[in-house]
Amino acid sequence: MKKEKTLRSLLGITQEDLALLLKVDRTILAKYEAGTRDLPLEAKLQLNEMVQYMCAPETMHKLFDRPEQKAQKQRALERMLTENEFQQMAFTRKVERVEVKCTGQLRVLQLIDFLFTKDSAKEHRLAAILRSIAHKAHQRLKSQGMEKLFKLKLQLEMLQLEKLLLQAEILKMDAKPNENKE
């Protein structure tokens, strides 16, 4: 019976262990789950009591409130926070490198604009060179510039927000023991 298997999964226990707790043979429990045999009354009552306990709202609340789960969550949050800080440092360096490249290309374009305003830039040969240099600068900005910079800055912001969430979660965990003591 699918229903009984879901009861077993609700209890989080194997068929063999459940049979031991109910004080019945595993084959009897298997036949009960298959719908071909009934459980002894005492085993049925015990199973009913276990299911009711596990379905109670206070039981579900206690499920993750155990000291070992709290400690495990605390360690996981601290590891995630450390990893987040490392990623932020890496992204900050990437942003700085891309900003340097973008700034260089933008300066090239600014210089080209200045040179085009001068009378000597009207010379055909010099104008062609300036257009070529400007084209290269535009291509570099397009391939590795502003879009990449925007994307990196956005990822860095997301990491900063993630750090705030992790820190808030750690603060909640630190505050919970104090609530229990009062």
Task: Write up this protein.
The protein is mostly helical and 182 residues long. The protein has two domains: 2-63, Orthogonal Bundle (434 Repressor (Amino-terminal Domain)), CATH 1.10.260; 67-181. The protein has eight helices and no strands. The protein is rod-shaped and about 105 Å long. Mean pLDDT is 87; it is low at 178-182.
DSSP E strands, number: 0
User: If helices are DSSP runs of H or I spanning 4 or more residues, what is the number of helices?
Assistant: 8
Indicate the structural class.
Answer: mainly alpha
Judging from the principal axes of the Cα atoms, what is the shape? rod-shaped
Instruction: Tell me the β content.
Output: under 5%
The quaternary structure here is single chain
Portion in helices:
over 70%
Number of domains: 2
Order of helices and strands: HHHHHHHH
Average of pLDDT: 87
- Uncertain spans: 178-182
Major sheet? none
Compute the CA-based radius of gyration. Answer: 33 Å
Distance between the termini: 47 Å
Note the topology:
Layout: H1 2-11, H2 15-22, H3 26-34, H4 41-55, H5 57-63, H6 67-117, H7 124-144, H8 146-181
Helix pairs in contact: 2-3, 6-7, 6-8, 7-8
